[in-house]
């Protein structure tokens, strides 16, 4: 069994064939999918999908790209949506210094507001980072002990991984690990302790090597598991099992 811990199948890229995508995931032994919101609309979309399918769960949150749209009303909406029994985490949230679609100070405020909400609701969080670990890690370290979650689509090196592990975070490995020159991510996939590893697609983006540049989907999480298994000298089934167990433990509610 495999669990895709980060998918955006609520997006319009899947409107034409969502049922076929879910069928392929089922055939590929992907037993659960966590659908990630990144603004109010996509958070509602994630919850709607989770309501429709027993094996799908949802998160609600505001991506740093859209931090400029954060208002007290948005937090109120997230707080309400988070009471839904299928909502098991908050995010994705974090900082993105690559595209800077919202000013950095605005990103930080939206991030802290969502961290406050996670502490209030005692919910795990999904962290998005791009070129911003130098600011994200101290923010998370300051809340060590009161928050938990996953550093999704981890692209740092082994040293950064250890800082994340030290504050109790899980490491989410996605399709990038299958790319030839992704040596940092491969080293992390090899060295991350078994009980902190999660696998994900981040679909429709970041398809693994065999579909690189095309639309990604939950079934392809197997390619991620296969690559990690090769790096760690174990079987794809073992990677599927341990990451499913980690998922259930982290997001138990
Ligand atoms: Ni994402």
Keywords:
42% helix; alpha/beta; binds nickel (II) ion; 253 residues; eight-stranded parallel β-sheet
Q: Based on helices, strands and strand pairing, what is the structural class?
A: alpha/beta
Instruction: Please list the strands of the largest sheet in the order they lie side by side.
Output: 1-2-3-4-5-6-7-8
The small molecules bound here are: nickel (II) ion
The low-pLDDT segments are none
What is the CA-atom radius of gyration, in angstroms? Answer: 17 Å
Strand content is 15-25%
The SSE string, one letter per element, is EHEHEHEHEHEHEHEHH
Q: Count helical runs.
A: 9
Q: Using DSSP, what is the number of strands?
A: 8
**Average pLDDT:** 97
Question: Helical amount among residues, as a percent range?
Answer: 40-55%
Largest sheet: 8 strands, parallel
Q: Based on CA inertia axes, which overall geometry fits?
A: globular
Give the distance, in angstroms, between the N- and C-terminal Cα atoms: 21 Å
Overview of the structural elements:
The chain has 253 residues and is an alpha/beta fold. The chain has 9 helices and 8 strands. It has helices at 18-27, 40-52, 72-81, 104-121, 133-141, 158-166, 183-191, 221-232, 236-250; strands at 2-7, 30-35, 56-60, 87-96, 125-130, 149-151, 170-173, 197-199. An 8-stranded parallel β-sheet has the order 1-2-3-4-5-6-7-8. The chain is globular and about 45 Å long. The two termini are 21 Å apart. It binds nickel (II) ion (NI). Nickel (II) ion binds next to loops.
């Amino acid at each position: 069994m495999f669990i895709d811990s980060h998918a955006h199948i609520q997006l319009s890229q899947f409107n034409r064939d969502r049922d076929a995508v879910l069928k392929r995931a089922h055939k590929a032994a992907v037993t659960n999918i966590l659908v990630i919101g990144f603004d109010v609309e996509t958070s509602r979309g994630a919850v709607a999908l989770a309501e429709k399918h027993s094996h799908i769960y949802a998160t609600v949150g505001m991506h740093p790209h859209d931090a400029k749209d954060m208002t007290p009303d948005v937090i109120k909406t997230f707080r309400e949506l988070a009471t839904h029994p299928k909502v098991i985490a908050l995010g994705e949230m974090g900082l993105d210094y690559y595209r800077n679609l919202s000013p950095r100070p605005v990103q930080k405020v939206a991030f802290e507001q969502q961290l406050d909400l996670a502490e209030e609701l005692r919910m795990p969080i999904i962290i998005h980072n791009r070129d911003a670990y130098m600011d994200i890690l101290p923010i998370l370290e300051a809340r060590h002990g009161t928050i938990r979650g996953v550093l999704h689509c981890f692209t740092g090196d082994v040293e950064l991984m250890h800082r994340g592990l030290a504050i109790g975070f899980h490491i989410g490995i996605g399709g990038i690990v299958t790319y030839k020159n992704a040596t940092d991510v491969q080293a992390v996939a090899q060295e991350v302790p078994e009980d902190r590893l999660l696998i994900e697609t981040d679909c429709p983006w970041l398809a693994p090597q065999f579909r690189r540049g095309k639309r990604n989907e939950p079934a392809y999480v197997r390619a991620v598991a296969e690559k990690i298994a090769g790096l760690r000298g174990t079987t794809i089934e073992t990677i599927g099992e341990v990451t499913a167990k980690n998922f259930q433990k982290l997001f138990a509610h």
